[in-house]
Amino acid sequence: MTGKITGGIAAIVWIAFWFWLGWWRFNIPVTVTGFGPFFYWVVWTAGAGISIFCLGVEADQQSGKITVGSHSGKGVNAIAAIVLLLALFMTVGGLSGSSIFRARALASQIYVSDAVPFQADDLPAFDPTQIPWVDAAYARVLGDQRLGELGAIGAEVRIGTYVRQLVNGQLFYVAPILHDGFLRWNANRQGTPGFIMVSMTDDRDVRLVTDNVIRIQPNGHAAFGDKLERIVHRAAPTALRFDPIFLVCDDLYPHWITPIRVNRVGLWGGRDVDGIVIVNATTGAVSRYGLYDVPDWVDIIHPIDVVERQLSNWGTLRGGWLNSWAGRRGLIQLEDGNAIVYHKGDAYLFDALTAAGGNDESTIGFILTNLRTKETRHFSLTGATERAAMLSAQGDPRVAAQRFQATFPLPVMVEGQVAYFMALTDPNSNIAQAFALVNVQRHQIVGIGDTPRAAEADYRMRLHATGVAGLHTPTADLVEIEGEIVRWGQYSVGGNTFFTFMVAGYEERLFRTDTSQPEAVLTREGDRVRFYALATEGTSWSVLAFENLEFNLARGQLE
Fold first, then answer.
1. How many CB atoms lie under 10 A from the CB of residue 464?
2. CA nearest 36: which of 218, 263, 246?
3. Three-state secondary-structure class, residue 281
4. Disulfide engineering: 416 pairs with which of 102, 173, 470, 474, CB 3.0-4.6 Å?
5. 437 pairs with which residues across the strands?
6. How far apart are CA 260 and CA 244, in angstroms?
7. What is the pLDDT of residue 249?
8. What is the mean pLDDT of residues 354-369?
9. 207 Cβ contact partners less than 8 Å away, ≥ 6 residues apart
């Protein structure tokens, strides 16, 4: 009897201790719909506690000796039964969501329509002044430089993960400034100074925003009431959660976004998103939203790795699990790597598709997935993969000797055709030294330039020279213009100089060029010029093949 009593007390203490630790310290959701929480709560906390009771623990009051297994016969049988039940439950639970039995359910988690050809407005048209060419590696370099402005405080903090975001219509990398460990947090519980914003289109636009401190921070950077996981746990105690990301609203208030995870196939399979929890990083105010109630400034609701897994299941499991291993008919796989494309205010995940077991350098199509709604668009287009395009740009004879490294390509629309845009960076400094445009269908056509506009001009001229695109295209008509300059001005973006001007007889148009046109540098009002312009529906036209006729006249007089 004594053994049962002491065993019961030990079991209660065990369960109470581990429940408190899991709830308060580890912030583990109280649910069995995730394998980790199930193992912790059911197997380790409850199962081990019950086992202690069944096995029995007895303490001799005179000698103080502790005896385990004072009524071990029945206890061992009970423990064996518990272990068998748990093993059976875990086996059934695992198989209920596995691809062996639920292949088609996993494949149908994301709807992918039949493939259609690309249209001109399916991707953003190439705009050299707004193309996001700053990548995450370069953003980290720029952010570290700006962090130095904090002086001694900069040695006590670190910059978190950079996340791309559309803020007030402009693309930025945004990253929080975090405490560098528990001791730093304990010494300054008021929070860190703020966050870093790095423009993706202008490497001179690097902002240190200190209007609102970052008091709420993830585990490892804060503790107790300032720990992000604890706040989210209180708001959603039974919900599984994906990793949080840091975003700012259009008013530049910092927030943590934590997607709520749900398993839609079986007990532990088919991970998906069922809403989000938003925590104000300054005040700790928390709000929970359903999928269709999320504020507009939140660009990304569905984590990229979740979308990639669902797309991979769609490509490989549509014909069943056995076909994915044996028959392998009609299998489609995602090319390694992806790009996030912002188009018409939404963030899309851009993935290239290849045939399983086929040529890894050739695509059979592409998929765009809206990261807010998970709506997909499937396009049929054969051509080069992103990796093949990167190799084409790096191997171009004009830059091959410099051994530049290409950033992961961004798809754009040029002359009605899909092209990859990328920066060519110095491998040591991560600083962009040149830019490239590579045609998807014919990746031998490569445009190279010191600026995005110069790369565009070179690319368009090569398109026309090879006959891939005529002078009249779905996006622009190439027209020849000659006349006298009546207005001339210049401006700088991202360290690059651009010229804008008006020509007599075309005063309703504003023409743009840059230093890639050598004769434009010395041009002034009153000069007579000849050039080709890309005529669009807008009033601002890009210029190719700029020629100052005054220089030709001067050269003729000298001769």
1. 17
2. 263
3. coil
4. 474
5. 421, 447
6. 10
7. 95
8. 82
9. 146, 196, 197, 198
Residue with tokens 């050739």: 362
Domain spanning 477-558: which CATH class is it, in words?
Answer: mainly beta
Confirm whether pTM is higher than 0.90. Answer: no
Structure tokens at 67: 């005896």
Q: Where are the domains of the chain?
A: 2-96, 136-289, 386-466, 477-558
Of 447, 450, 339, 324, the closest CA to residue 385 belongs to: 339
* Higher local confidence (pLDDT), 185 or 468: 185
**Token pair of 402 as six digits:** 């410099």
Whole-angstrom distance, CA of residue 265 vs CA of residue 260: 16
DSSP letter at 148 equals G
At 355, give phi and psi (nearest 5°).
-80, 130
Residue 303 pLDDT: 95
pLDDT of 63 above 70: no
Please give the residue that has the higher pLDDT: either 56 or 257: 257
The Cα 209–Cα 225 span in angstroms is: 24
Structural tokens at position 23: 């709830």
Which tokens in the block code for residue 511?
């023409």
Q: Read out DSSP for 450-476?
A: SSHHHHHHHHHHHHHHHTSS-SB-SS-
> Sign of the C-alpha dihedral, residues 34, 36, 37, 42?
positive
Q: What percent of the chain has pLDDT over 90?
A: 54
Asked if residue 179 lies in contact with residue 188, where contact means CB atoms within 8 angstroms, the answer is yes
pLDDT digits (tens, 9 = 90+) for 476-496: 567 889 999 999 998 875 566
